[in-house]
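About this split. The held-out portion is used to measure sequence recovery: a designer receives only the structure tokens and must propose an amino acid at every position. Recovery is the fraction of positions where the proposal matches the reference. Here is one held-out target exactly as it appears in the evaluation file.
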């Protein structure tokens, strides 16, 4: 019986893909050693390629793993393998590269004798506290800075009945919350003969599992539609936390990015989403230093974000990605200027986050316990609004939903705020 270790880079979709791979390998008789306690016969690395840094991190890990486990078969898959000019084929440490389209046939692709292959999506299990449910893959938005459409292909939605079966499996395992995820979930169901919408799926999940908490992962602004807003209002189990990428608060830069909306449209949708719940948490992504972004353009972005009801920002300096359209654009912002702009937006993010969190001070909330006690005796979890909470308690509370009072605010070693809670 082969012992397998898995490693994953990147987004929630990649993590779900890994759980799917693990199910395929286990169906072929392997044991997936999540704790990595025994020496592996095979190591599977599921890669990301959203940035060149992600490629380098994968290369470094692969070399490290081969050095630590020279006898193990190293198998590499994921988005990095789909790059036309990837360097993986020249790496002596790698034994097999498995194309993403062949992941369900991985046992036979890596030469396992008498391996059973899968032609259909398996129902997977997960050892994580909350379960990621992949509802689609691929994207054809073709933002000029993004490599994903080229490596993951066009949007392909998973049939609703399979998703419901997958959710049922997670509920049977005892999961109290799922995260609906995909590469571009706003496009869910548009490729079906009888077109569906994301809201249709959310209603179906709620009607089948009325006590299951539903968290929606990153959703493009185009997905914040009237029917989605209506679903958020009508489905009480949808968590009040949403991540709606903006990328720039300047229409000129949005056009250069091929984002297909203007700032006024984003603002309208965020305000409508915010109106569904006064305490709703809404976060966003911002790229600074995109080719052509002037100081005035950045100030426009800063002012726009400042006036939005957002609770946090994820800020990234623009980095040219070979294979994308913007790779041919002339860089106009220096690394020093990018860094300064990042720092200004991060400071704004902290201010917004502190303002948002202050509204929960001394309030009671529920928390799903995610991490066992640390050396100081605290358990860790997150609230419905994605607020980090630490509190004293027994490890037997792990994976349970409990009620706590948010007694005081503190800061971790990275200066990120969290609440110290008291179990009620």
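Reference sequence for scoring:
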């Amino acid at each position: 019986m082969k012992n397998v270790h898995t490693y994953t880079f990147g987004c929630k979709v990649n993590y779900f893909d890994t759980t799917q791979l693990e199910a395929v390998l286990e169906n072929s008789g392997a044991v997936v050693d999540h704790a990595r306690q025994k020496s592996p016969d095979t190591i599977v690395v599921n890669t990301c390629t959203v940035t060149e840094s992600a490629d380098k991190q994968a290369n470094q890990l692969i070399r490290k793993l081969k050095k630590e486990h020279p006898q193990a078969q190293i198998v590499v898959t994921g988005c990095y393998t789909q790059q036309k000019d990837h360097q993986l084929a020249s790496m002596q440490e790698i034994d097999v590269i498995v194309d993403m389209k062949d992941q369900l046939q991985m046992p036979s692709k890596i030469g396992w004798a008498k391996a059973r292959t899968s032609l259909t999506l398996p129902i997977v299990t997960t050892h994580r506290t909350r379960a990621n449910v992949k509802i689609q893959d691929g994207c054809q938005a073709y933002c000029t800075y993004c490599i994903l459409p080229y490596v993951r292909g066009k949007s392909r939605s998973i049939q609703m009945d399979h998703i419901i079966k997958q959710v049922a499996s997670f509920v049977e395992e005892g999961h109290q919350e799922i995260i609906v995820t995909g590469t571009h979930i706003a496009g869910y169901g548009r490729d079906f003969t009888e077109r569906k919408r994301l809201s249709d799926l959310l209603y179906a999940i709620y009607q089948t599992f009325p006590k299951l908490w539903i968290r929606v992962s990153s959703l493009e602004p185009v997905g914040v539609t009237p029917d989605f807003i209506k679903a958020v209002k009508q489905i009480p189990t949808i968590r009040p936390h949403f991540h709606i990428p903006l990328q720039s608060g300047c229409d000129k830069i949005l056009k250069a990015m091929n984002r297909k909306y203007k700032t006024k449209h984003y603002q309208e949708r965020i305000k409508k989403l915010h109106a569904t719940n006064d305490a709703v948490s809404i976060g966003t992504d911002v790229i600074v230093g995109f080719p052509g972004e002037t100081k005035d353009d950045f100030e426009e972005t800063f002012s726009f974000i400042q006036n939005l009801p957002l609770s946090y920002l994820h800020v990234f300096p623009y980095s040219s990605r070979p294979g994308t359209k913007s790779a041919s654009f002339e860089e106009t912002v220096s690394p020093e200027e990018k860094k300064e702009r990042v720092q200004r937006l991060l400071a704004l993010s902290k201010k917004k986050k502190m303002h948002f969190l202050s509204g929960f001070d001394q309030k009671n909330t529920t928390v799903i316990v995610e991490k066992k006690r640390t050396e100081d005796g605290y358990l860790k979890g997150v609230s419905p609004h994605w607020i980090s909470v630490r509190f004293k308690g027994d490890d037997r509370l792990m994976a349970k939903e409990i009620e706590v009072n948010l007694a005081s605010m503190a800061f971790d070693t990275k200066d990120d705020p969290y609440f110290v809670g008291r179990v009620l």
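Annotator remark: The chain has eleven helices and 17 strands.
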